[in-house]
Design a protein that fits this description.
This protein is mainly alpha-helical. 82% of the residues lie in helices and 0% in strands. It has helices at residues 2-33, 37-50, 55-67, 71-84, 89-101, 105-118, 125-136.
Amino acid sequence: MKIFILIILFFGIIFSSFAEKNNFFDEAKMLFEEEKYEESKFLFQRNIVYSPKNAESYLYLAKIFDLEENKTEQEKYIHSTLLLEPKNEEAMYLLIDIELKRSNFSKVEELKKDFNKICLIMCEKLALINSRLKELE
């Protein structure tokens, strides 16, 4: 009987821990959408501690650091997102945007080729990238 109670207790702890981890991301995303960026940043960072392979948390942190105009951290989190999820269109587009602002044309061309290979949802952004490239030339 004691073993049965211990097993139930063990699985209960594991289940509640799993539910709590998922709750960090959902709550952080909700706070982000409510424009409560400091609070959401804390929860996205906490989610990364429990789920270090959650590319979406890194992407949202990159967006928050963009809003805070912390370009170093923004780029770090974009690269982390792409490392975990190389076909993440939004992260790739954000990286292209950074390189466009730096006027790094060769890097933009390289990233644009990669973006063209992976785009499924954001393909219309290619025209925008091309027009921005022409404006800067």
